[in-house]
Every structure is written in C-alpha cells, then in structure tokens.
C-alpha cells in the first residue's frame, strides 16, 4: 500500500488552517470536476483524490491521526527503511479497511455538483472505521452501493463530420441510441452518455457510456489543433507573374491572390477558415495554404526558345 500525501494533493502546507484547507478544496474541486473537463479522462481520478484529501484534512480527528502516521512514515524513510516494509498494522482503521463512499451534505459541494465518489485503499484501510455516518464539515459518510461500470466505445468520423458535427446510431440491447458528436471534435474527444453503461450488481447507479472519437486522416488537409494545413498547386506562370488561385476549405473553395514572384513553399494564412473550436462553434482556427509551384513537364520549341531568352537576360 502506498502512502498518500494529502497536503500535497490540496496544495497546502502542514500548518494550514481549517479555513485555508476548505478554500483549497473548493477551488480544486471546481477546477477538476469531470463535468467541466469532459475531454480529460484523468479529471475524475484527480477529483476523487481531492475529495479524499479534504475528508482527512477537513476532519480534526482524522487529521490528527494522519499527522501522526505521516511523522512515523517520514522517520521510517529517513532511516533508510523501504516503503514496502513499513508496518501499517498499527494504523489500520478497521478490519480489512471497509470501503466507504462520500456524499456531500448541504454545506459541502453537493449543492454544486451532486456527485458520489469512492475512496482509495489507503484511506479505507487507515480511516475506514472512522467514517461511518459521521458528518464533518458538511460531508456525510455512509456505505453506498457500488455504481455500474463505465463503458467506452471508439467511433470514427471524417474531418468534414468533425467540422460540421455529426451523429451516430448505436444499438444497445435492442434500443437505438442517437449520439450527437459536437463540431470541433478531435481524436481523443469523449462524448458522455449518462446511464448507458453497465448496470450495478448491488443496486447502485448505472454506469455511463463514453464514445471516444477518432478523426480519420483527410487526403487534403492536415489538422494541427484547430488549424488546418493544405498544399495548393500553382503553375509557374502565376507564381512568376502573380494572379489568383482557388484554395479548398471545408466549406468550399475560396479565391486567394498570389503576388508576383511567389516562391515555392510560401504559406498564406486564411483567418477563420480552420476548424471550429470545441463547444465554441462561433470561433474557428486558421487555414494555412502552402504553394506548390509546378514546372511544365514538356516544353514546345517556342516555349523553350523563350526560356532560353530569359536565361540569357539573367546573364
């Protein structure tokens, strides 16, 4: 079992007051709540850590025990003891460390988030016997049925679908589910369907279904974040003399003026012609058009003669 540094998790020092600990907890809980970080699969684990740290440091009885354990743990390390050999037996909170779940009361963040979160093995082993039904600092502890398992399914969409947004139809136990994938989705974006995961075997809440988006490669555009890159062919004469070319975008071709003497590889920025930003569809990235100057493969005798004249003029 690994020791957990709750002070480090909340970002406070060991002499922090109850008020400072509570303020740090509320700030971090809001920041890392899974509902405000739907594209970050690690946010839920971070949120659980924050809840667990506050349950210990926000409870005077648990904090005293934790500080005593921490002092012994650090002395053990400073003496050269190996973490795996530390004797946890004197610190166990109850037989087997009964697993408990957290539910916020009226003074906690339940009014804001309304979430149940489970604790780590470290917490349940050390403090499991101290949490049953106790109300401290606006937090209620009680044994809760385990929720059903969350499920994850990958779904592939095209870049055009990612631009405009799209839907997918799923079949679950004979039911057809329509899933909306928002515009601006990128590879790794997760779309959450509440209550469509596995059912709980102990009467808890049904898990959720997460669709993990994969955006297929596009033959025309290369995507970098919300920006797009495209190579545009331009003939030698337009590059030398200047002119106008057509540039493809995901909403149709647009005209682009090319100045005389444009070099091969020169890149032009088309503002707002890139991908829409996820959940901010009124904002877009940019499109970068890179010129590919193409030389004539075959020259007529007249064309060759003119090129030779140009070469002589350069000399």
- What's the name of the CATH homologous superfamily of the largest domain? DnaJ domain
Please report the number of helical segments. 8
Give the strand order, joined by hyphens, for the main sheet. 2-1-4-3
Order of helices and strands: HHHHEEHEEEHEEEEEEHEEEEEEH
Rg for CA atoms: 30 Å
* Number of separate strands: 17
Q: Tell me which CATH architecture of the largest domain applies here.
A: Orthogonal Bundle
As a percent range, the share of helical residues equals 25-40%
CATH class of the largest domain: Mainly Alpha
Residue windows where pLDDT falls under 50 for at least 5 positions: 94-117, 132-143
Look at the helices and sheets and give the structural class. Answer: alpha+beta
Q: What is the residue-averaged pLDDT? A: 80
Give the terminus-to-terminus CA distance: 80 Å
Strand content is 25-35%
The biggest sheet amounts to: 4 strands, antiparallel
Structure description:
The chain is of the alpha+beta class. The chain has 3 domains: 137 residues, Helix Hairpins (Orthogonal Bundle); 65 residues, HSP40/DNAj peptide-binding domain (Sandwich); 94 residues, Urease metallochaperone UreE, N-terminal domain (HSP40/DNAj peptide-binding domain, Sandwich). 28% of the residues lie in helices and 28% in strands. It contains 8 helices and 17 strands. A 4-stranded antiparallel β-sheet has the order 2-1-4-3, covered by helices on one side. It is elongated.
